[in-house]
Design a protein that fits this description.
The chain is mainly alpha-helical. 60% of the residues lie in helices and 0% in strands. The chain has one domain. It is built from 4 helices and no strands. Helix 1 packs across helix 3, helix 2 packs across helix 3 and helix 3 runs antiparallel to helix 4. The longest helix has 25 residues. The radius of gyration is 15 Å and the shape is globular.
């Protein structure tokens, strides 16, 4: 499934409902900018333009990819349709920070060990 359509689905938007595509795309790309700064995905970054780009194109191992999907949803949801209560927003922000930390740990675990002569 495409990155855009799967994110729209979890937001409760039908794939064929395109009124908010620009908003959702903008927020997805913002989330990918953050993950690129964390060192995840292709070195040149990820930028999607529509419903043609799929999750496997990110080239991430399954454990990182599954967490990336949740992270992107949380970031998009927090920007596109944030919770209306401060404690729900704080809980979502905490989930986002935890996912950023865990994604970073997964990336670091995948790096080759540094050998100091």
């Amino acid at each position: 499934m495409s990155i855009l359509n799967s994110t729209k689905q979890i937001l409760g938007l039908a794939a064929d409902y395109t009124a908010f595509d620009l908003d959702v795309l903008t927020h997805i790309n913002a989330a990918f900018s953050v993950t690129n700064q964390l060192g995840l995905g292709p070195e040149e970054g990820v930028f999607i333009t529509g419903a043609t780009e799929d999750w496997p194109e990110l080239g991430l191992p399954d454990n990182q990819l599954n967490m990336m999907k949740t992270y992107v949803y949380l970031k998009v949801r927090s920007l596109f349709d944030p919770p209306t209560t401060s404690f729900a927003l704080a809980a979502m922000d905490n989930q986002i920070k935890e996912h950023e930390w865990r994604l970073n740990m997964l990336r670091e675990a995948a790096l080759p060990p540094v050998v100091i002569p």
